[in-house]
Amino acid sequence: MRNLLMKVNYDGTTYDGFQTQPQGNTIQDRLEEAILHLTGEDLKIHASGRTDAGVHAYGQPFNFITSSQIPLERWCLALNARLPQDIVVTEAREVPLSFHSRRSAKRKTYRYTINANQFPDPFQRRWQLHHPGILDVSAMQQGLTHLLGTHDFTSFASRHSTKTSHVRTIYEAHMEVDTSMCRPNPRDQGVIHVFITGSGFLQHMVRIIMGTLINVGQGKCPADKVAHILAACDRGAAGPTAVANGLTLWSVEYEEADYKKAD
Amino acid sequence: MRNLLMKVNYDGTTYDGFQTQPQGNTIQDRLEEAILHLTGEDLKIHASGRTDAGVHAYGQPFNFITSSQIPLERWCLALNARLPQDIVVTEAREVPLSFHSRRSAKRKTYRYTINANQFPDPFQRRWQLHHPGILDVSAMQQGLTHLLGTHDFTSFASRHSTKTSHVRTIYEAHMEVDTSMCRPNPRDQGVIHVFITGSGFLQHMVRIIMGTLINVGQGKCPADKVAHILAACDRGAAGPTAVANGLTLWSVEYEEADYKKAD
């Protein structure tokens, strides 16, 4: 028996999120079908976490226990040949049997992307929120800093969250503005990427943070009010939930000791 | 009557190229329908040139003569509201009645993109040729330089070309390698963009140049042989026609005097 840790990239546009659900077309379903087709094993994979419908991932880890003898270096190509083109497995390694993609995860990073140019980009639109109005990026950056550290993030969690604790830690957060695709036009502000790294994220947490930051960028909410919104522990205090398609699970980090297989 | 020059971006994946054709689903059809819907005018637009089925464009110019009174600054939004999401009009300006997008064009630039990483990229796959094997980029660059200048490009034209002259000028050509999405893996070579600027291009010309350069990159053909292929004036001497989806019409340039409206 081996415990295999893999990484998968997917364009989540047409999927109902990662995790299997009734009548859902999910990434997990497609991966488990590909594994069944390849090995004959009808098994369950463990992911680093759920993603919402329409959310994307670059390098989302998942693991599973297999008795297949297929050599490690053959797995990616063999699975990709059995997956739709919008799901691509890029890495496979053997890890200790105790390793679990979600329980062993130490840090997760999400990226949220806003196209702040005047017109939508037909090439990148599937993973961008289009916001044609000018945004005050430095105010948004200032708002973001209020979220750093360990807090109760109830204001930034879905009302449907079933977690007993809403305390999470945000380790890092920063913004990048890519102006390479701007026309020489003051109404093209660039593509804004927001990266947020934390211990874990509540349901809709990044999207509600983004809805709130966009309010800040539009001048509807002063940057310093983000601290008050956080302190309120009230979902009603924060901004709207930004659309799912702008969100990409960007990386998941583990302790080397947890996934390094002792040979 | 006004002559309006516009620029359009499109993801050509699902279209049969730019130009109207029987039973075709083309960019021109969608643009003319949007104009008809907006103005009631059943008119023909003039493009800077054709693009093949599956080819994309960033800023492809087209123009048309209209008697509509719609102010210039309203056209883009109004047309985009009537276009599919994968076609976006980004600029509109009035030009002299003598201006014609194709006949007035002085320089055109195409970009061809090769994903030379081990695995396909689910986000960018629609506008990339995936070539997982290692390519010798400096040999490709050397091969490309043999095409600079004015030559008979019969070797790099479709056998179905109906042009009386195959003499064209390539003004500039260069390659860029983007390694930002590479994994720490020697089998990820990056995303290779090839930019070629010329006076005009024959049918399939950029795609046949690319098929030939890929042969060079694979070591199947020495870089210096590109000069002999060019001199042969024989389509059979060159490499295969690279797939359409890697190709994007990148820019079309005009003389300022030709499109600047004398007020």
UniProtKB/TrEMBL annotation, chains A, B:
Position of the signal peptide: none
Active site residues of this protein: 52 (nucleophile)
Reactions catalysed, as given in the entry: uridine(38/39/40) in tRNA = pseudouridine(38/39/40) in tRNA
Residues annotated as binding substrate: 110
GO biological processes: tRNA pseudouridine synthesis
InterPro entries noted in UniProt: PsdUridine_synth_cat_dom_sf, PsdUridine_synth_TruA, PsdUridine_synth_TruA_a/b_dom, PsdUridine_synth_TruA_C, TruA/RsuA/RluB/E/F_N
Uppermost EC category: isomerase
Protein's UniProt keywords contain Ribonucleoprotein: no
Residue span(s) of domain Pseudouridine synthase I TruA alpha/beta: 8-101, 146-255
MF annotations from Gene Ontology: RNA binding; tRNA pseudouridine(38-40) synthase activity
Gene3D superfamilies given in the database record: Pseudouridine synthase I, catalytic domain, C-terminal subdomain (3.30.70.660), Pseudouridine synthase I, catalytic domain, N-terminal subdomain (3.30.70.580)
The keyword Disulfide bond belongs to this UniProt entry's keyword annotation: no
Sections of the chain in a coiled coil: none
CDD domains linked to this entry: PseudoU_synth_EcTruA
Listed EC numbers: 5.4.99.12
Keywords carried by this UniProt record: Isomerase, tRNA processing
Quaternary data: Homodimer.
Family (UniProt): Belongs to the tRNA pseudouridine synthase TruA family.
Role noted for this protein: Formation of pseudouridine at positions 38, 39 and 40 in the anticodon stem and loop of transfer RNAs.
UniProt cross-references to HAMAP family, sorted A to Z: TruA (MF_00171)
Protein's recorded name: tRNA pseudouridine synthase A
Species of provenance: Paenibacillus agri
Lineage, top ranks: Bacteria, Bacillati, Bacillota, Bacilli, Bacillales
